[in-house]
Design brief:
The complex is a heterodimer of chains A (368) and B (136).
Chain A lengths: L1 E2 L3 H19 L6 H24 L13 H12 L11 H28 L11 H36 L3 H7 L1 E2 L11 H19 L3 H13 L5 H7 L13 H9 L13 H13 L8 H9 L13 H7 L6 H4 L36
Antiparallel strand pairs in A: 1-2
Helix pairs in contact in A: 1-2, 1-7, 2-4, 4-5, 10-11
Chain B lengths: L2 H17 L4 H13 L7 H8 L3 E2 L6 E2 L1 H5 L7 E2 L6 E2 L14 H16 L5 H12 L2
Antiparallel strand pairs in B: 1-2, 3-4
The chains are: A mainly alpha (368), B mainly alpha (136).
Chain lengths: 368, 136
């Protein structure tokens, strides 16, 4: 047995596999902090692999596994026939999986960073991309995740088939680095480079997750997304419920709501005309249609122009965002109580980092 | 006015302002208004009874009463029957802000009577309830 995979290449492989698995498992918005960190880790790993494709040992170099449709075709045909080539490094089919995974991983980092900057005001592009661009990037991010999962599936399937056909434990070789090969094909371990990689990953993880850092990131995201509030609106609306920010419904909803102020969800608000005029003016100027925030932008787009919902929970966007939650949650938490899960409900920033869904029955809010 | 005189005046205003029973005055004003409308005398016991007496809502068929949201312990935090929002204690001893603003008191009496009883409260009912709340 001869070492054909140096240590940095193996470390890259398993770190990427773990990071991708972790990112898949944290794709839900409520685990964004982990998801974001793992995304940056993938970005770093891809950059490393590109450099290692030039600087690495023999079988890790791109020159040893060129991207060739003809070679892959010959490999597949060879699989069916008897005269099979043995490949010390990557076989021509495996090469395709590697280049595709590297490309997809890089695209995932880019689309993720664009979506994050537009929707959450986080990351290197915080606040830079338009909401529309962020939305498109987010859609691409979702589709590419499935594409990547599919390529991973093909890659794992190919490894299993290759293991059988080449009579070589390919999974084991990616762990130990060793394959059956002539001694002249052997490569050095490059343990020092691997040590630097581990140190970098450990330092980044510490810098990201160390005490208080996550909370500071959440506070920054809330501050960046927070919308201006009106004292009159706050005092008038917060008597019975959260003073929902006007950005959460379109202007026509607020107009309908104020014209129906004498039957406000079973209450007669009985506001003076002057108060109604002022409140409605503020609401219309800051309504979802003015698109002051990513959430407002999405709500405005999700409501048919012909309808004017009076409840935020009637908008298509709200429903889509909450449909995967356990229905039992809304038996213990009233849907009107945004603050039960969204720590930043008051500021209407609705940062993904500020979501804390209560586990089990929440403590009684208020008491007899 | 010299700075000294201005300082003395400001101190006098502050001292007088804090000596004056700030929480009682708005309620007294309201009670006088209800009396001028023919109500009175007011009784905390009647207010207490009214507080916990249910009224069936015509539309929903549910019994409603003041204590539904505010509970019978006015020093405790209440809970809005529809939204579940916490309601700060009504007793001035537990929450000094209560009964300090006559227009606020009138606004909430009007709104909450309509929801609970399906009509505005009479001056007598309002006076009884205010006397009861003030005593807590």
């Amino acid at each position: 047995m001869v070492r054909v995979w140096d240590l940095p290449t193996r470390l890259f492989h398993w770190a990427l596999a773990l990071a991708f698995a972790g990112d898949w498992l944290t794709r839900d918005a409520s685990r964004l902090d982990f998801h974001e960190f793992l995304g940056y880790a993938i970005g770093g790993l891809v950059l490393f692999r590109l450099a290692w494709g030039w600087l690495g040992t023999r079988w890790a170099r791109f020159s040893s596994f060129p991207l060739s449709a003809a070679a892959a075709w010959r490999y597949f045909r060879g699989m069916l026939g008897r005269g099979r080539d043995r490949h010390v490094g990557h076989n021509p089919a495996g090469s395709w999986a590697i280049y595709m995974l590297l490309t997809l991983a890089a695209l995932q980092v880019v689309t993720g960073v664009v979506a994050l900057g537009a929707e959450q005001h986080l990351g290197p592009l915080a606040g830079v991309p338009s909401f529309a661009l962020g939305d498109a990037a987010h859609a691409a991010h979702r589709i590419l995740a499935y594409a990547m999962l599919a390529v991973v599936g093909v890659h794992v399937g190919g490894v299993l088939v290759g293991t059988f056909l080449e009579r070589e434990n390919l999974v084991g070789s990616m762990l130990t680095g060793r394959k059956h090969a002539p001694a002249s094909d052997g490569v050095p371990a490059r343990g020092g480079v691997a040590g630097v990689m581990i140190a970098l990953l450990a330092v980044s993880a510490f810098a990201w997750f160390a005490g208080g850092r996550a909370d500071a990131r959440m506070q920054r995201a809330i501050a960046a997304l927070a919308l201006p509030r009106d004292p009159r609106w706050q005092s008038e609306c917060s008597g019975c419920h959260l003073a929902y920010h006007p950005s959460l419904l379109p202007a026509r909803s607020w107009q309908r709501l104020f014209s129906g102020q004498h039957q406000h969800f079973g209450e007669d608000l009985d506001l003076a005309d002057e108060a109604v005029r002022q409140l409605e003016d503020y609401a219309v100027r800051n309504a979802a249609d003015t698109r002051p925030s990513p959430v407002a932008w999405r709500i405005a787009r999700s409501v048919d122009t012909g309808s004017a919902p009076l409840r935020i929970s009637e908008t298509a966007y709200w429903r889509a965002r909450h449909e995967r939650l356990d229905p039992a949650l809304f038996k213990s938490v009233h849907a009107s109580d945004c603050g039960a899960c969204h720590r930043d409900a008051d500021s209407a920033s609705f940062s993904a980092l500020a979501i804390r869904v209560p586990e089990g029955p929440p403590p009684a809010r208020g008491s007899k | 006015m010299t700075p000294l005189a201005r300082g003395l005046l400001a101190t006098a205003v502050l001292v007088l302002g804090s000596v004056r029973p700030a929480a009682a005055a708005p309620v007294d004003d309201l009670l006088h208004r209800y009396q001028s409308q023919g109500a009175g005398p007011f009784s905390a016991a009647a207010g207490e009874k009214f507080w916990d007496t249910p009224h069936v809502d015509a539309a929903s068929g549910e019994p409603r009463k003041c204590a539904l949201c505010h509970s019978t312990n006015l020093s405790a935090t209440g809970k809005h029957a529809v939204t579940g929002k916490a309601i700060k204690p009504l007793a001035p001893s537990a929450n000094p802000e209560r009964l300090s603003d006559a227009s606020k008191v009138e606004k909430w009496l009007e709104r909450n009577c309509k929801w609970t009883l399906g009509r505005s409260c009479t001056p007598q009912e309002k006076g009884d309830v205010l006397v009861m709340i003030r005593s807590r």
